[in-house]
């Protein structure tokens, strides 16, 4: 039998880079300012200057051709959207040091005008730039450069737009549930209307769990919820009741899992993955094919609670834990 040829290593450590698209898309550089901006963009240009800012350029972004305004905004009129993750003080201090040392601010934030949401003198929200904005305010800057997006909906596209600092699961989930509450106030839209903004229905449920239990080990449950949770079709203000019940169910399961984890510890078994290990053992869809339709949320969680109650710590051996992996119980 012919020997298999060894796979060639790639610059990305074994993963092949995606090939560029066969056809060019978007706009050429000379086309970004070739057309006259529409009325709403012209109006935004004027509004920025009425607010005491300065519109530096009006142009279309090169991929989708959507209009943007590059502007300098009075920094006191800008705030982070009120439902995004908390600041990382370490990250802010690092940014302050770098900006101060270089004597330059070169990375504009993204901003939208708040419109009817104007509060406390704030006229612009940034869904992508919380840490940079905070650093500049601490350094005493008078203004900040921003790419101002005419469409207010951009304020809710935090997870899709935010490339400033990678989210962990807790941050994603808390950001989604805060945004969920804000959007639920605005209209009768259902969850799937904001599928892009929320990314996963599981983040909504997990966000409620984290609010109730800050040290909740969401990473242990995320693989299951990602498969059985789904966007609800009823209006979000009504769907919140269902979400709250789902979160209560997950937390009730967590109580049972914690009890079994403590029993394992009492037997001298130690591992940073004890909770993930127990959750995996009681997961009824663990070996179900990924392309198979999973059972309903309530059915799956009910089976997991029954399995958690029957879980026998005395049958678990050290080698069983050695084979396991997953997300550490805390601080994922």
How do you describe this structure in short?
By secondary structure, the protein is α/β, with parallel strands linked by helices. It is 43% helix and 10% strand.
Keyword list:
332 residues; alpha/beta; Conserved hypothetical protein from pyrococcus furiosus pfu- 392566-001, ParB domain; six-stranded mixed sheet; 12 helices; 6 strands; elongated
Tell me what the structure shows.
InterPro entries: ParB/Sulfiredoxin_sf (IPR036086), ParB_N (IPR003115). This is Chromosome partitioning protein ParB. Residues 1-24, 310-332 are annotated as: Disordered. Residues 311-322 have a biased composition (Basic and acidic residues). It comes from Nitrospira tepida. By secondary structure, the protein is α/β, with parallel strands linked by helices. It has twelve helices and six strands. A hairpin with a 6-residue loop joins β1 (54-60) and β2. The chain has two domains: 36-163, Conserved hypothetical protein from pyrococcus furiosus pfu- 392566-001, ParB domain, CATH 3.90.1530.10; 167-332, no CATH class. The two termini are 47 Å apart. A six-stranded mixed β-sheet has the order 1-2-6-4-5-3, covered by helices on one side. The model is unreliable at 6-13 (pLDDT under 50).
Poorly predicted tracts of residues: 6-13
Query: H/E series, N to C?
Result: HEEEHEEHEHHHHHHHHH
Count of discrete alpha- or pi-helical segments spanning 4 or more residues: 12
Proportion of beta-strand residues: 5-15%
For the CA atoms, what is the radius of gyration? 24 Å
InterPro entries: ParB/Sulfiredoxin_sf, ParB_N
Organism: Nitrospira tepida
Biased composition (Basic residues): 1-20
Biased composition (Basic and acidic residues): 311-322
């Amino acid at each position: 039998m012919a020997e298999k040829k060894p796979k060639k290593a790639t610059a990305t450590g074994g993963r092949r880079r995606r090939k560029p698209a066969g056809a060019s898309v978007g706009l050429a550089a000379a086309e970004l300012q070739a057309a006259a901006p529409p009325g709403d963009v012209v109006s935004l240009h004027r509004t920025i200057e009425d607010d005491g800012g300065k519109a530096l350029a009006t142009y279309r972004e090169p991929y989708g051709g959507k209009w943007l305004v590059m502007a300098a905004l009075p920094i006191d009129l800008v705030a982070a959207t009120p439902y995004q993750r908390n600041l990382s003080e370490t990250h802010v201090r690092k940014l302050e040091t770098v900006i101060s040392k270089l004597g330059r601010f070169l990375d504009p934030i993204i901003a939208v005008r708040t419109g009817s949401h104007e509060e406390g003198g704030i006229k612009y929200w940034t869904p992508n730039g919380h840490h940079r904005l905070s650093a500049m305010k601490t350094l005493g800057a008078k203004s900040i450069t921003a790419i101002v997006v005419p469409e207010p909906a951009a304020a809710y596209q935090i997870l899709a737009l935010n490339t400033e600092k990678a989210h962990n699961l807790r941050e994603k989930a808390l950001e989604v549930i805060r945004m969920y509450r804000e959007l639920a106030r605005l209209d009768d839209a259902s969850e799937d209307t904001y599928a892009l903004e929320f990314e996963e229905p599981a983040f909504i449920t997990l966000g409620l769990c984290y609010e109730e239990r800050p040290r909740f080990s969401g990473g242990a449950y995320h693989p299951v919820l990602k498969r059985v949770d789904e966007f609800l079709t009823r209006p979000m203000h009504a769907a919140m009741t269902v979400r709250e019940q789902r979160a209560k169910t997950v937390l009730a399961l967590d109580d049972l899992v914690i009890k079994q984890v403590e029993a394992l510890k009492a037997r001298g078994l130690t591992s940073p993955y004890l909770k993930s290990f127990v959750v995996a053992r009681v997961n009824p869809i663990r070996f179900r094919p990924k392309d198979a339709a999973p059972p309903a949320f309530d059915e799956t969680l009910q089976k997991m609670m029954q399995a958690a109650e029957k879980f026998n710590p005395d049958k678990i051996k050290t080698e069983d834990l050695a084979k396991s992996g997953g997300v550490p119980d805390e601080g994922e």
